[in-house]
Design a protein that fits this description.
mainly alpha, 58% helix
Length: 110
Amino acid sequence: MKRLIGVLLFAAAPAIAGPLPARTVQDLYGTCQRNEPTCIAYIAGVFDALVVVSVSKQHDPLFAVCADSTVTYGAAQQAFFNWAPRHPEHWNKSQLVGVTLSLQETWPCR
């Protein structure tokens, strides 16, 4: 299971040449404010990975989002866009942490 999570989260990273830059919640929020396509692409990848984890029989709530099939990528992007300004204490954390927290707050697994 941990290997699957690692593979899924790696796949969610945007495809770029060279090493991945250290990107923060604040960086991604700025990208979203500029309506750059990489915003929704990144959030969609993380969202898909977390949903896949949540449907496994023994999912770890730390890596799960319990959203139904009607949730759109636009809704996932809006969840992050709404969450980020309310949580400036997380702005220096990885964008992966921020997106995960925003999605889990919006669609928690109970």
